[in-house]
Amino acid sequence: MTSYSITPGRAENITESLLRWYKENKRDLPWRHTQDAYAVWISEVMAQQTRIAYLLAYYERFIQLFPTVDSLAQAEEADVLKVWEGLGYYTRARNLQRAAKKITRDFNSQLPRTREELLTLPGIGEYTAGAILSIAYEIPTPAVDGNVLRVFARLENSDEDVMLPQTKKRAAAFVSSIMPTKHVSYFTQALMELGALVCTPKNPDCSACPIQDCCWAQAHGQQYELPKKSVKRSPKSLKKTIIIIRSTRGEILMRQRTEALLSGLWELYRLDEALSAPQAEAHLQSLGFILQTLKSAGQAKHVFTHQIWHMHGYECTVSGQCVAEGYHWIPKEDIKKLAVPTAIRFYIKQI
Ligand code: SF4
Hints:
The chain is an alpha+beta fold.
């Protein structure tokens, strides 16, 4: 690992001030009542790309349904995706289950205690491995997430681009250089918590910061300018048509997605273009349907990381044989058991 130069006095000052502050100011979160590695792992994966307040109910439900590695490994994938419904980034849920199967098979149902072994598990990268080792097992290992990167950039008054891998490596080396040998779990959580509550992206509350005396950005009035980030490409705008196709028996035409995005989730009939009502009517007839009714189901928009879907919706009742490949008639009462993407919830609610 890259080494980092920091004076022992400053390192000790940061570490001790952070630990004291954390003891008094940490949020009471359900996974902080345990050091169980499984619970730490689930909470860390859920917290990626998701606000803590939003995921609390998801976490409780997930742990209730799948309380152990074995229970997760043995679950039906559809049930795991159903509990995850609404959290997005479904690859995380699928990887959790794939990793659980590997842990059951290769590690006697215990999360491994080395970085190298943890990195062999699907979905576990440097950050999650560091979080599990330090938070659950008290093994000094840096866990550098967005919060920690920001705190690093500001403490060091560093204008390096935090999106670059070499900056993440330097941040990890910095964290290692200030990491204590005792209270490792608290220390890792304290650093993350400082980034979440005090050293926030837009308005760092430096006057309330326990390590303000050690912060070079604060000393130079640079805290609002940091961290430096290369500009992300803006998401691509895509037009979609979503059609709620109802049979005369009241079933709905749906398909389980196989595409990488939202793979395994169930969607309504979809076209990757915007159709006017007459165009939608002609399209449905070309599928072999005899149209009884067709009306607008409104417009909706959903923002993914790399795409924005602008959706035009229709609702129709049809008779006749369907030739749409991969689609199945689903009884209305069974739809609530399926995992559906948040992107089309607006239309699902109308069924
Ligand atoms: Fe962040 Fe301000 Fe604390 Fe520096 S003093 S670490 S900028 S909150």
